[in-house]
UniProtKB/TrEMBL annotation:
Entry protein name: Lysozyme
Keywords linked to the UniProt accession: Antimicrobial, Bacteriolytic enzyme, Disulfide bond, Glycosidase, Hydrolase, Secreted
Biological role stated in the UniProt entry: This enzyme has both lysozyme (acetylmuramidase) and diacetylmuramidase activities.
Subcellular location: Secreted
Catalysed conversion reaction: Hydrolysis of (1->4)-beta-linkages between N-acetylmuramic acid and N-acetyl-D-glucosamine residues in a peptidoglycan and between N-acetyl-D-glucosamine residues in chitodextrins
Pfam family, one: Glyco_hydro_25
PANTHER family: LYSOZYME (PTHR34135)
Lineage per the UniProt record: Bacteria, Bacillati, Actinomycetota, Actinomycetes, Kitasatosporales
Organism: Streptomyces mashuensis
Amino acid sequence: MPEHHHGQGRPLPPTAAAALVSLFALLMSLFAPIPTAAGAAVPTGPGHPDRDWMGSTIRAHEGTENAPDSLPDGVRGSTVEGVDVSSHNGNVSWKSLWNSGARFAYVKATEGSSYTNPYFAQQYTGSYGTGMIRGAYHFALPDNSSGSVQADFFADHGGGWSGDGQTLPGVLDMEYNPYGSTCYGKSAAALIDWIDDFFTTYRSRTGRDAVLYTSTTWWKKCTGNYGGFGTYNPLWVPRYGSSAGELPAGWSFQTIWQYTDTGPTVGDHNRFNGTYGRLQALADG
C-alpha cells in the first residue's frame, strides 16, 4: 500500500504559488494602516461621546462643595440663568427651561474630529425658538487631531456664528481626558499650542474669539496655569459650590460660571456674569 503523509500535499506549480503570494500581498495592502507624517496624530473616533458633556469629568476629579441646585437671591446679583445640554439629555423641553428662568443655552455640537450630536438640531433650534440666546460647544480631544482640524470640524457642524442677536460665540471645552491620561499625553507647551491653534482657526472661520471652558485645577495641572488667553477669550469655569472660586491665570473674572450639574431641571446650570444686556452684547460681538 502506498504510504500516506498527513499534512503533506502535492507541491503547487510555480505559477499557482506566485499567484497566491500576489493575492496575499494585495490583501495585506488593503488592511495596512494609512501612513501619516512623522509624529502626526491618527484621527480616531471617540469611544463614548454620548457620555462626554461639558463638565462630565469635573465631579469625579474635583468633587463638590455642597453644590446647590440653585443659588439664593443674594448670590445672584446681576446675572442671567442659563443651561448647557448634549446628546445624553435627548429631546429637551425648552419651554420648561424657559419657564424655570433659563435665558441662554449652550449645546454640544461636536467632539474630536468625527462626532456630531444627533440631537443637535432639536436642542439648538429648540432653544432659539423659545427666545433663548444660544450657542454651541466643542468637546476637545487634543490627542485625536490638531486644533485647527477640530476648529474647522466644529465650525462646519454647528459651531459657526451669525450676527442675528441670538447666537453666542462657540466654546472650546477643555477638561479631563475621558479616555486616558489627564492631559492627553501632551506637555503644557504642546497643549497651549493646540489650544492656540484651535482659537486662531475658529476666529479666522467665524470672526469671533471662542469662549474657553475649563476648571482652574485642570488648567494649572495641564498648562502650568498659562495666562496668555485671558485678553481675548472669555472664561467659563465649572465649580459646584457657593462661588466660582479661584480662576485660572490671565482672567480677573469669569464670563460664565457652571454652578451645578444636577438640576434643578434638565442639563447643567450656569450663571452669566452680568446683565441680560451684556449677554446680548456678547452675542452681538
